[in-house]
């Protein structure tokens, strides 16, 4: 028998917390659109992973192409973080001796 690192009840709890994070980010989008959009996408990635794992543990897979969904949502967050990093680097004054 395979030793599972996840159990269904804990995954449901994780999914519920990620749903909450997603809803807060969605409701407060106008406060800081780029940040809230990034948080929203990361919450959706985590939730998709949790739901896919729940389906796997139940032996009943319903979600088609969760990997593609996760990669697409991560791409958005990744590109926003890269842009943020570039912005921070350009704001730092050059060092001169």
Helix content: over 70%
Given as residue ranges, the uncertain stretches (5+ residues, pLDDT < 50) are none
Order of helices and strands: HHH
What is the residue-mean pLDDT, rounded to a whole number? 89
Say how many strands there are: 0
Instruction: Quickly count the helices.
Output: 3
Rg from Cα: 18 Å
**How widely separated are the two ends?**
65 Å
Largest sheet entry: none
Q: What coarse outline follows from CA principal-axis ratios?
A: elongated
Structure class: mainly alpha
Give the amount of beta strand, in percent: under 5%
Protein traits:
97 residues; mainly alpha; 3 helices
Protein described:
With 97 residues, the protein is mainly α. The protein has a domain at 29-86. It is built from 3 helices and no strands.
List the SSEs and their pairings.
Layout: H1 8-27, H2 33-58, H3 66-91
Helix pairs in contact: 1-2, 2-3
């Amino acid at each position: 028998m395979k030793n599972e690192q996840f159990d269904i009840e804990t995954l449901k709890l994780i999914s519920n917390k990620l749903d909450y994070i997603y809803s807060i980010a969605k409701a407060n989008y106008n406060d800081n659109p780029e940040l809230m959009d990034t948080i929203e996408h990361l919450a959706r990635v985590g939730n998709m992973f949790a739901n896919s794992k729940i389906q796997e543990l139940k032996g009943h897979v319903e979600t088609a192409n969760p990997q593609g969904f996760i990669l697409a949502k991560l791409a958005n967050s990744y590109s926003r973080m890269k842009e943020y990093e570039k912005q921070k680097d350009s704001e730092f004054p050059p060092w001169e001796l």
